[in-house]
Specification:
Elements: H1 3-6, H2 26-40, E1 45-50, H3 56-66, E2 71-76, H4 83-93, H5 103-119, E3 123-128, H6 136-145, E4 149-150, E5 153-154, E6 157-162, H7 165-170, H8 176-181, E7 182-188, H9 196-206, E8 215-216, H10 218-228, H11 232-248, E9 253-254, H12 256-266, H13 271-274
Parallel strand pairs: 1-6, 1-7, 2-3, 3-6, 8-9
Antiparallel strand pairs: 4-5
Helix pairs in contact: 2-3, 4-5, 10-11, 10-12, 11-12
The structure holds adenosine-5'-triphosphate and magnesium ion.
Magnesium ion is lined by residues 56-57, 129.
Amino acid sequence: MYEPFYGLKEKPFGVTSNPSYLYLSQRHQEALSCLLYGIRERLGFIEMTGEVGTGKTTVCRALLDQLDTRTRSAFIFNSNLSELQLLQTIVDDLGIRTTSRSKGALYAELNRFLIEQLAAGNNVVVIIDEAQNLSLKLLEQVRMLSNLEAANEKLVQIVLVGQPELRDKLNDPRLRQLRQRIAVRYQIKPLEREELPRYVGHRLSLAGSNGSGPIFTDAALDSVYRYTSGIPRMINLVCDKALLTGYVMDQREIGPELVVRAISELEGLTDESRA
Ligand SMILES: Nc1ncnc2c1ncn2[C@@H]1O[C@H](COP(=O)(O)OP(=O)(O)OP(=O)(O)O)[C@@H](O)[C@H]1O
Ligand SMILES: [Mg+2]
């Protein structure tokens, strides 16, 4: 509701992962390049981890946009699946038409598809987001998928994406076979302080700010950074709230006091509740 007040066309700091708002920080660019490299070079398993809200899903979506037409992909974002459901979802997402419903038949269909794609000079990638939630049993099943190998060529590249718990899970001795196969690992870190003005400015300009829109002062950004430690989702939450607070207080310039107030409200500490 504050958009017209600041001359914006839409809310700049939404918390859904919107690919058109992608800001390639150095870390996000590196993550993307690592994933693309692992996939293009057919390295098999690739792991990307990062704290909650650092932009893992955003990078996955950017990755899907950047894959060439010779790469077939499946993006699994629901990790709460049974073995059969996981296999079924991968098969469906790759566009393999099948009426089979048994594990063995799906596995055979997938195998046939992978060999076909290799023969056609295509590559296949399966991205599994929220992989920290997969059980050891399911992770072991994922490893089995990569057993489909022809003449030393990896038929399928599997990208495991998740919170740091994923790394701990993969360190479990029971998963050592899988761990040994991971060829590329990347850990996304939060934004650096110096990247914050670019991140915020990027979102403001995409939301339609033409320079006469809201301005976050440098001191305000210091406060944002201190509270969020550079985690994009947190930055979005705080900046959105700060814009709302500025609107309510009729201030287009966002200074640190507005940010502090916004943070208090986010934490449920309004003036009334503090009194
Ligand atoms: N590089 C980026 N450019 C623009 N926005 C970003 C970027 N990285 C993260 N964001 C924003 O931060 C929020 C969180 O990002 P995302 O959902 O990708 O994080 P995540 O690491 O997948 O989080 P979780 O651990 O909860 O799955 C989203 O609103 C997203 O738009
Ligand atoms: Mg995510």
